[in-house]
Amino acid sequence: MIKVKERTQAAITQPEVIKDFLCPLDSQLKELIRHTRAVVTALVHSEKQDDQLLIVTGPVAITDSQETKACAEWIKSKNSPYSGDPYTIEKVKLGLFQPTRHLKVLMNANVTHLKPHVQSRSASCALSSGSNHTSYSSTGALSSEPYFLSKGLVNARQQLVQICNSGVALAGSMDDPIAQVYFNDLFSVGIAPRLCGRFLVDVASEGTHAVGFHSRADELGFVQRDCVSSCKSPRSYLTVMNLGQVGVVTTVGNSDTFIAVNLKEVVVAIEDFEQRLVRDLDQDVKLLFEVGRVTSVNFKSRLEMIKLVFRSQWLKKRLLGFMIDSGEHYIHKERSSAPGASNNGGDENEGQVEYSPISEELSQSPKKTSVGNFMLKSLVASYNKLSLSLKPRHSSAQLEPLYYADKLISEIGRMVEQARA
Predict the structure, then answer these.
(1) 125, 138 in Cβ contact below 8 A?
(2) Residue 325 · residue 293 · CB < 8 Å
(3) What is the pLDDT of residue 359?
(4) Long-range CB contacts (< 8 A, 24+ apart) of 188-193?
(5) What DSSP element (H or E) covers 258?
(6) Per-range mean pLDDT, top range of 48-62, 113-127, 350-364
(7) What pLDDT does 14 receive?
(8) Between 130 and 293, where is the model more confident?
(9) How far, CA to CA in Å, does 259 sit from each of 35, 61, 137, 167, 273?
(10) CA nearest 139: which of 153, 126, 155, 149?
(11) At residue 207, what are phi and psi to the nearest 5 degrees?
């Protein structure tokens, strides 16, 4: 006899309570988000082929608060200091991670995705083009809870608010229609999963920000008809309101839409894809190319694929930007931990594990004799060496996606520079 466990249910705080009282946005942050939404909307509708490009990068799924902060610092360093918008940093830090002109870099803030638990180092993980546009297919088992459930809605929202306040704009996933009610006011752009249902099209038609619909290379006509075109028309539907009640929403329609498509699928049959562009898509629909994760193995091939996009008259005309998976690790424990031996431009101590404050206590002790000072300094030095040896370090392999994502973004920036020259 099969025993079926009874499912558990727990009431959660209403969206309005969390958004307006527990974790509200101040007027300055609201204005910053409105500004970036306007920037993205302008790029979606721009007719200039050499205009600023959109780059969406970051981890596939947010899983660690410290790594996420470090990722935000890296993305902040990539935004151009001469673009004049509020999302840039005042000082450009020297080293490997340099700002790139003519690119608007947003962070992929996926708090609703499941992180794969890889059971062994040899387990293979790759970007999947299935129903979830940035989900993983893995030999390991998926975790049972996304970040916003494991950490709590308030904590997850507070972390995203901190990232926005630091000057980094967010691109949010629309794969969970209920969870996105708690976060949609933070996103500058949303990306719906492949083969999204009618409800997500309804939500996208609200018009609060630009929305990208994920598509396979051979499904452009379907996505154009059932998603992009449908989203432009006013719609009425049932949804969860901010007070937690179900209500009827009537939208105004959203013309700020684009299509996200896998870069490799496009390049494999580029001539056929160009024909589909002309035949199936409206002339004003732009494309965000999903590059996936870049490593030392596939960097050159991915770079060549991107060059093909710039060489193609039809693809370049439709080009909105690129989506790049930069991995889960962003904290440099030591300068030699990443390829190129460079710092990511963030606080070197941020996110590091502190095992004990004993060294600080010793250094703040009253002055001793010269012999006592010598012994004290020796003890502190020995302790610091031991503490450093205990600190976890990311290997070069773990930081490799970040290094090559940064390198690829810089190469894309140079291509745009050459196109504008």
Answers:
(1) yes
(2) yes
(3) 28
(4) 188/33, 188/36, 188/37, 188/39, 188/40, 188/106, 189/37, 189/40, 189/54, 189/56, 189/106, 191/56, 191/133, 191/134, 191/260, 191/288, 191/323, 192/133, 192/227, 193/131, 193/132, 193/133
(5) strand 257-262
(6) 48-62
(7) 87
(8) 293
(9) 22, 21, 22, 26, 13
(10) 126
(11) 80, 20
The answer to whether position 227 is within a domain reads yes
Closest by CA position to 165, among listed 121, 107, 117, 118: 107
Residue 372, token pair as written in the block? 């006592």
pLDDT averaged over the chain? 76
Asked if pLDDT for residue 2 goes beyond 60, the answer is no
Determine the structural domain holding residue 256 and report its residue range.
15-125+147-330+396-419
- The closest alpha carbon to 23, from 110, 151, 194, belongs to 151
DSSP 8-state secondary structure symbol assigned to residue 239: E
Q: Which pLDDT band holds residue 145 (cuts at 50, 70, 90)?
A: confident
139: in domain: no
| Long-range pairs for 120-126: beta carbons < 8 A, 24 or more residues apart | 126/292, 126/293
In the block, residue with structure tokens 């160009």: 274
Q: Which of the 8 DSSP states describes residue 142?
A: B
pLDDT tops 90 at residue 306: yes
| Cβ burial, residue 232 (10 Å; 0-12/13-18/19+) | middle
| pLDDT > 50? residue 367 | no
- Any idea what DSSP says for residue 328? S
Q: Provide the pLDDT for residue 128.
A: 27
Short-list 176, 179, 171, 238, CA closest to 209: 171
Using CA atoms, how far apart are residues 181 and 177, in angstroms rounded to an integer? 7
Inside any domain, residue 383: no
What's the structural domain count of the chain? 1
Give the 3-state secondary structure of residue 411: helix
Residue whose structure tokens are 């901010």: 242
Domain-embedded: residue 353: no
CATH classification of the domain holding 263: 3.20.20.70
Q: Are strands 187-192 and 210-215 parallel, antiparallel or unpaired?
A: parallel
CA 206/CA 272 separation, integer angstroms: 34
